[in-house]
Every structure is written in structure tokens, then in C-alpha cells.
């Protein structure tokens, strides 16, 4: 019987694994190595690791795990969780199966992008979703902003902190009177024509071509995609979603399913930052350890 299985090897899952390993808990981290930030070349805003690549961050974490004999890692995908009286049974895509007392879902979110041709060619290289993560690198440059109009206006206000040269593209979404009033208040340039094509080289944006024939030069930009759960494992167990789309839980990730916890973006979608997800993993791991102690299960090295 494993003390805890952590599903998802992003920052939340990695930090939860480390904390539980240091708490002398027998843990298994299941990681399919398909994190949302895998497309980007560098992660920012994490003190002492500013500019680290996602793969390097993951590799460093796994190196640290080697110091703790109670930590095991499995590169696989969990496809089924069966609730038992004393915990859960885990089943994976590669046919592995084991029993665990507790589970931390740290499966994160995935993006639902607007219908913009070849957007993914640029996403993570010159088009990003978080100004706090990548605004510095694009400071004072001519930028594009894509996304649903209402939320895009909020992002535009923030993004102007890094660049005043900003064009909002609605990709065919028409403007209401309230939108037009907001545009005037913010003194924004807004193009409503559908986007025909994004052009550039090696993932670096150069131009936005519109269906009305207009071509606007931009060297980078931001997008406000909808974020949805990357895994349905929580839903399959009966956990509801909260108002932001995360799995409903208390402040330390405890769900209504006894023994099931959620951490990182799986529980709290916004703001989506590496350091916040990692901190969530710490809090949830501590809560799991306390619950195990209350259950009469003390930690011991393997």
C-alpha cells in the first residue's frame, strides 16, 4: 500500500512529491511528461530559476528525488481510479496497478484556443498567455493581443505596462456599444476582421494578415485562451468544478472524496504561474501528511 500517489508531474506534482518524500512517505509520482508549459522555451518568475526551461526544471526535480528512497516515479498515464474502503486502486495506460491510501491530482489545465490559423506554430515562442511570465522579453515591442473581447480588454490594460504599441484582434467577434465605449476609454486600436494567417519564421511572429486584406506587422503577442481540465479523473470520481473551472476543494486541496486531493492549476486555475502551482503542491502535500498521521499512519523510509 502506497501512502500517496501524485498524478501529474508539473510544478505542483513535483513539489508535492518532494515534500512527501521528505516526510518519509512512500509515494509514487505518475507523470506522462506532457505538461502545458512544455511548448515554451523558458519559464520566468520563479526565484533562483528564472529562465529555466520546463525540461530542465523537471530534470532537476527528479535529480533531487534520488536523495529520498521512499519516492518512486513512473512515466505513464493513469486511466482509472477505483475508490476502495481503505483508499484507491490506480490503473495505468501501460497496464500497471497498485493500491494507494491518498491521491493528489496535479494534472493541470489545457488550453482551448480560438480559431486562428497556424496559431500553434507561434505559441510558446513569440505568442504567450501570461504577461507576468513573458512580458519582460517583449517589452516596448509592437505586440498583438488575441482572445475573447471582454477578457482581452482587461489583459490589454495590464499588458500596456510592458508595451504601449498594442493591437487587439477580435478575429471576427463583433463589438457592442459597451465594447466601443471601453475602446475609447482605453484608447485601443482594435481590428475586428477575421485573421487569415499569422506569418513569421521559426515560431517568431512577423505579421498578422486579415481577411479584409490588411497586414499588420507585429513581433510577438499574447492570447487569452480558455483553460479547461487536462484530465477527467476528478470528474469520474464525482468531484465538481468550481467557478474558475478547477476541481472544487478547500484551501489545501481536500475534495469531498475522502483521500482525494487536488493541487496546482487542477484546483485553482488563475493566476496560472509556475511558482504559484509549486506552492500549492507544498500546501497540499502537508495536508496529506497530516491526514495520514490522523489516520494513524506514520512515515518510514523504504
Uncertain segments: none
The fourth-level CATH homologous superfamily of the largest domain is FAD/NAD(P)-binding domain
Helix content: 10-25%
CATH architecture descriptor of the largest domain: 3-Layer(bba) Sandwich
> What do we call the CATH topology of the largest domain?
FAD/NAD(P)-binding domain
Description of the structure:
The chain is of the alpha/beta class and 302 residues long. It folds into two domains: 2-110 and 226-294, FAD/NAD(P)-binding domain; 114-224, FAD/NAD(P)-binding domain (3-Layer(bba) Sandwich), CATH 3.50.50. Helix content is 25%, strand content 27%. The protein has helices at residues 11-22, 54-65, 131-134, 149-159, 177-186, 233-236, 274-294, and strands spanning 2-7, 27-30, 71-74, 78-84, 87-92, 97-105, 109-112, 127-128, 143-147, 166-169, 189-191, 195-201, 204-210, 215-217, 220-224, 226-229, 260-262. The strands form four sheets. Strands 1, 2, 3, 4, 5, 6 and 17 form a seven-stranded mixed β-sheet that branches. A five-stranded parallel β-sheet has the order 8-15-9-10-11. Helix 1 runs parallel beside helix 2, helix 1 (11-22) packs parallel to helix 7 (274-294) and helix 4 runs parallel beside helix 5 (177-186). The longest helix is centred in the last third of the chain and has 21 residues, at 274-294. The model has no long low-confidence stretch (mean pLDDT 91).
